[in-house]
């Protein structure tokens, strides 16, 4: 990864990258880049990190606003032989302090804004790194980027296939995220190389315009960067926010043929599907990562495409494993009601799944609920600073995902709930699917299980209101629930990938963090 962009430049890759705003590390660099310019920026960044003291075997922590230059900085760190650790700016100061203490980075690459945010909460991030570099403005206790510019760019340092290459963190929906250590073999050899195949219908072509709206502090985009640059589409579009009005002009100027996004990005961009000459008219393939998207949203995007047979591809997996299953939706399949958490079948050749009783670990029959175990060569090396926790999530060579599900007779899997979030009566995820189908005004529906009580429904709408009549219609013939709470999108605590932090939301609304599950495998 340290020389990825150099190799693209040497091959004269003709891909043009369009940004919705300039890179934070190159604010005067504009919003259009080719392979040569990207390679130059990565080399320059490697020089900055080297001048700041990062070298072979060191860790470089990256904490900044959401943008693709997270991955450029990670490539620069890999170029000098260091191990990049990408930390989301959505993490709380307390969580950042814990993760940085485990990382003990040689260099922390961040911004004055992030330092000030954490200092206001009583956390001095500069105390965790040998050197802290800010890319925006100078602050006491940190080195400004201008002070490390212009130094010698060191020769690339290659690391072994099984040495740590990058450290990413989990979403953190149930507490402090885990630091996930991946090697070149796991994240590049097993994940990126498998994806970088010109498979008909779903492979990237030379005439494609590939757009992504993601969280660039997470492992998916590091892998995605390797794939998309090696596949050399005609154009790449980078979206950094979830405001549909800011995304619309960029998407209209460069209408994508492949669109990938966070589930939250698809939810927030959905109004664009209803506009005249909508920006998704040329999309032949939609890709959803991190979590499933509910059927009403998928239908809206498939309808918005003017291609004859557009596809929607869901991938289910974890930061620790990469994708484990996939499934496809078409307009015809969405005409039949499908649950968003029917996650499909294991990826052929790459992954295997087993469902077991969570108490005895004995296999369960198809149709019976069980704890989902996975086996894949892409499994991470460790949890940094929590090796015992990593070991506790393995049994006989299988990885304990912490999800409960049901295997069908055809081999496909339907997820029920995270074990920690489960409800004794039915499945929260399935009820959320039904509610989203019945409440067109809902941006998102979340069901929170509480011990000894019916689940608490949280309905997220644009204005934070929900009519009693709409709720009565929506909950007809569903299991008993408490009276709903309606909130706006920004009222809900979220992770860097915009997943709902259910434990925090439960505490916010009920004053308790108690769940029906054990939380043993979070």
TrEMBL record:
<dbReference type="InterPro" id="IPR042099">
    <property type="entry name" value="ANL_N_sf"/>
</dbReference>
<dbReference type="InterPro" id="IPR050237">
    <property type="entry name" value="ATP-dep_AMP-bd_enzyme"/>
</dbReference>
<dbReference type="InterPro" id="IPR020845">
    <property type="entry name" value="AMP-binding_CS"/>
</dbReference>
<dbReference type="InterPro" id="IPR000873">
    <property type="entry name" value="AMP-dep_synth/lig_dom"/>
</dbReference>
<feature type="domain" description="AMP-dependent synthetase/ligase">
    <location>
        <begin position="36"/>
        <end position="377"/>
    </location>
</feature>
<keyword id="KW-0436">Ligase</keyword>
<dbReference type="Pfam" id="PF00501">
    <property type="entry name" value="AMP-binding"/>
</dbReference>
<protein>
    <submittedName>
        <fullName>Acyl-CoA synthetase (AMP-forming)/AMP-acid ligase II</fullName>
    </submittedName>
</protein>
<dbReference type="GO" id="GO:0016874">
    <property type="term" value="F:ligase activity"/>
</dbReference>
């Amino acid at each position: 990864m340290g020389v990825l962009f150099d190799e693209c430049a040497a091959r004269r890759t003709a891909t043009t990258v369009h940004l919705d705003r300039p890179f934070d590390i190159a604010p005067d660099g504009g919003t259009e880049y080719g392979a040569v310019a990207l390679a130059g920026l990565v080399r320059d960044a490697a020089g900055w990190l080297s001048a700041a003291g990062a070298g072979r075997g060191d860790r470089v922590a990256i904490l900044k606003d959401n943008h693709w230059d997270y991955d450029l900085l990670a490539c620069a760190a890999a170029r000098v032989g260091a191990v990049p650790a990408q930390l989301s700016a959505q993490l709380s100061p307390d969580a950042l302090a814990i993760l940085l203490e485990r990382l003990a980075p040689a260099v922390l690459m961040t911004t004055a804004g992030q330092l000030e945010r954490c200092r206001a909460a009583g956390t001095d991030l500069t105390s965790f790194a040998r050197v802290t570099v800010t890319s925006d403005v100078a602050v006491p206790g940190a080195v400004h980027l201008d002070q490390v510019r212009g130094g010698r760019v060191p020769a690339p340092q290659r690391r072994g296939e099984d040495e740590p290459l990058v450290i990413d963190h989990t979403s953190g929906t149930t507490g402090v995220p885990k630091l996930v250590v991946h090697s070149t073999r796991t994240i590049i050899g097993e994940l990126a190389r498998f994806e970088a195949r010109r498979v008909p219908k779903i492979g990237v072509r030379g005439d494609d315009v590939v757009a992504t709206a993601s969280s660039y502090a997470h492992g998916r985009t590091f892998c995605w960067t390797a794939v998309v640059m090696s596949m050399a589409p005609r154009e790449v579009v980078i979206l950094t926010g979830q405001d549909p009005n800011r995304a619309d002009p960029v998407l209209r100027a460069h209408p994508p043929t492949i669109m990938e996004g966070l589930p939250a990005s698809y939810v927030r961009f959905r109004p664009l599907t209803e506009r005249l000459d909508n920006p998704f008219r040329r999309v032949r393939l939609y890709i959803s990562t991190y979590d499933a998207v509910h059927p009403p949203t998928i239908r809206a995007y498939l309808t918005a495409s003017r291609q004859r047979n557009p596809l929607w591809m869901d991938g289910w997996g974890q930061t620790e494993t990469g994708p484990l299953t996939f499934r496809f939706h078409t307009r015809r399949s969405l005409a039949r009601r499908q649950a968003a958490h029917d996650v499909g079948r294991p990826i052929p050749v790459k992954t295997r799944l087993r469902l077991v009783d969570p108490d005895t670990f004995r296999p369960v029959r198809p149709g019976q609920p069980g704890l989902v175990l996975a086996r894949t060569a892409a499994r991470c090396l460790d949890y940094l600073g929590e090796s015992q926790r990593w070991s506790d999530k393995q049994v006989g060579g299988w990885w304990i995902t912490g999800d409960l599900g049901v295997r069908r007779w055809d081999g496909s899997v339907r997820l029920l709930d995270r074990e920690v979030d489960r409800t004794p009566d039915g499945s929260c995820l399935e009820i959320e699917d039904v509610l989203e189908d019945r409440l067109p005004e809902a941006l998102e529906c979340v069901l929170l299980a509480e011990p000894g009580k019916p689940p608490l429904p949280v309905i997220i709408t644009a204005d934070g209101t929900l009519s009693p009549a709409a709720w009565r219609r929506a909950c007809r013939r569903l299991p008993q629930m408490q009276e709903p709470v309606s909130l706006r999108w920004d009222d809900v605590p979220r992770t860097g990938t915009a997943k709902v932090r259910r434990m925090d939301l439960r505490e916010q609304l009920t004053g308790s963090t108690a769940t029906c599950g054990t939380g043993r495998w979070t």
